[in-house]
Amino acid sequence: MEFNKEFDASGLSCPLPIVRTKKALADMTSGQVLKVIATDPGSGNGLLEHGSERSKFVFFLKKA
Amino acid sequence: MAAKKMALIATKGTLDMAYPPFILASTAAALGWDVQIFFTFYGLQLLRKSLDDIKISPLANPAMPMPVPMPVMVQMLPGMESMATMMMKNKMKSKGVASLQELRDICLESDVKFVACQMTVDLFEFETSEFIKEVEYGGAATFMEFAGESDVCLYI
């Protein structure tokens, strides 16, 4: 999947993957896609498509 | 659709109990919620300019995991509180857990409203200059006004 920006939250614990994803989205424009990689199983909100690469969670978020 | 609202009451000033309000508040704010935290009694310590003095005590805390079993008579020795705090902070850092300072900064950046209980500020004879400048002061009625319209309301 194509994306405009990537944020790697690997190794970060709750709630950092979520709050920093929000920060990463802040300077993006509507319709752009952010790729988020996380290892915290508690993360995941508003995802477009996700898959598991080994023990990592990968999310693609489209800015509303 | 109007933003959801969360109202929290933070009453504790130890390291372990400082996390829940800041974690919930920063997350809710990231999700677009309006959040207000009412700090009262020992929770006021979480509003100090420096959070370096926020500690955890192994004493009277039998649920705290310790690397080796530690008798209460040892836990009460001078320096044990600082040691337990240092160990906990190191553990958190190694697991990618945010520091209290970072979570509080995120809350402030994302417009979480901090209200300090005026009654307990007066009771403990604290000066408002001891607290961060973003703090507002109020009473139970201040809290009720926001909490009455909230979707989530927790006492921590």
Task: Describe this protein's structure.
The complex is a heterodimer of chains A (64) and B (156). Chain A is globular, with a radius of gyration of 11 Å. Chain A starts with a strand and ends with a strand. Chain A is built from 1 helix and 4 strands; from the N terminus they run βαβββ. Chain A has one domain (5-62): 2-Layer Sandwich (Translation Initiation Factor IF3), CATH 3.30.110. Chain A has one helix at 16-26; strands at residues 5-9, 33-38, 49-53, 56-62. Chain A has 64 residues and is of the alpha+beta class. Chain B contains 6 helices and 5 strands. Chain B has a 5-stranded parallel β-sheet, with helices on both faces. In chain B, strand 1, helix 1 and strand 2 form a beta-alpha-beta unit. Chains A and B meet through helix 1 of A and helix 1 of B.
Outline:
The complex is a heterodimer of chains A (64) and B (156). Chain A has 64 residues and is α+β, with helices and mostly antiparallel strands.
Please name the defining characteristics of this protein.
heterodimer, A: alpha+beta, Translation Initiation Factor IF3, 36% strand, B: 156 residues, Hypothetical Protein Ychn, Chain: A, 6 helices, globular
CATH architecture of the domain at 5-54 and 99-155 in chain B: 3-Layer(aba) Sandwich
CATH class of the domain at 5-54 and 99-155 in chain B: Alpha Beta
Number of strands of chain A: 4
Largest sheet of chain A: 4 strands, mixed
The end-to-end distance of chain B, rounded to whole angstroms, is: 28 Å
Radius of gyration of chain B, whole Å: 17 Å
CATH fold description of chain A: Translation Initiation Factor IF3
Main β-sheet, spatial strand arrangement of chain B: 4-3-2-1-5
